[in-house]
Amino acid sequence: MALDRDRFDADLADVPVVAILRGVTPETILPVGRALAEGGIRFIEVTLNSPDAATSIRLAVQELASRGVHIGAGTVLTPSEVAAVAGAGGTYIISPNFNESVVRKTKELGLVSIPGFLTPTEGFAAAAAGADLLKCFPARALGPGYIKDLKAVLPNPIVAVGGVNTENVGDYLKVAVGVGVGSALYKADKTMDDIQKDTAQYLAAVAAVQEAGK
User: Fewer CB near the last or first residue (10 Å), C or N of the chain?
Assistant: First the structure.
């Protein structure tokens, strides 16, 4: 699936939530992906420490990209993994850390680069390497106030990941362009009804924050 960066940015502004699927399998990716998409999610991240993640990404792209869902990969640690994600049709690369070679390979292949960082030094280094957005991880360690201070000096938009829930998502979205959400939306033991219900609840909280900010 070719990357449409303008649509990527517009969709993130509209629904600023990335659903993190850790442990999803090729057998479960489609029902889980459909449940998330029907609930309103537009960004799905398949972590590469999931079983046969490349196949799950390929299946999700085939089924969900035409429905306006952006499929990417998380826990991407090496340039070869970036290439595998690109080959499966993923359009963005998320990492828990900053690795210059991963960022450069991501941009070489025309994907959106979202490396992890925690300090200003890491953030500036990632930006200089070509990152598009910066993933503040683990966000819970220092909170929204810390991200606000970083936002004042860093050149790239920030996505907050780790410890974001319906109670604090408003605080994070005041300082970040998006949030990554894992077990609050997806766990292997959740039913599809539960996933849809939790997604609706989460996005309702986000919509309330967005409405209050208008």
Answer: C
pLDDT in tens, 148-207: 999 999 999 999 999 999 999 999 999 999 999 999 999 999 999 999 999 999 999 999
Give me the residue label for tokens 């200089």: 128
**CA–CA distance, 94 with 104 (Å, rounded to integer):** 13
Give, as one character, the DSSP assignment of residue 122. Answer: H
Nearest to 91, CA basis, from 110, 78, 74, 77? 110
Instruction: Give the predicted TM-score (pTM) of the model.
Output: 0.97
Respond yes or no: is residue 105 known to be catalytic: no
Contact (CB, 8 A) for 33 and 44: yes
Here the CATH number for the domain that contains residue 39 is: 3.20.20.70
Cα–Cα separations (whole angstroms), residue 85 to 8, 16, 45, 103, 128: 17, 22, 11, 13, 23
- Look-up of token digits 């810390």: 146
65 lies in which domain range?
5-212
Q: What is the pLDDT of residues 3-38, one digit of tens each?
A: 899 999 999 999 999 999 999 999 999 999 999 999
Q: How many separate domains does the chain show?
A: 1
Please say if 108 is a catalytic residue: no
Catalytic hit among 81, 105, 135, 151: 135
